[in-house]
Design goal:
mainly alpha, 3 helices, about 80% helix
Amino acid sequence: MKGNDKLIVVLNQLLVGQRLPEMVTIDQANELDAIHVSKTAIHSAQEKDDQITADLLRKILMMEEGQADWADQQSDQNEQMWRGNYLANQTTGTFG
């Protein structure tokens, strides 16, 4: 299997979460994987002296990093909301 074939196999996997926290976690993991793949591809393009491809991949990398940051923010917000709801329910005695 060539390096590009492996990339295609990785990109063809689809994971779906049942609830929002799981969806965000899966999205975050996928973005981190995409960042790793993009960095590897940039390095490969540079080794082959292909600056046009490397530049395009850098733009893609920037988008992937932005999406990973967004997923991280969503995860933090979800955790804060869950904690707030949990604590509010604990103090009123209505949780569980």
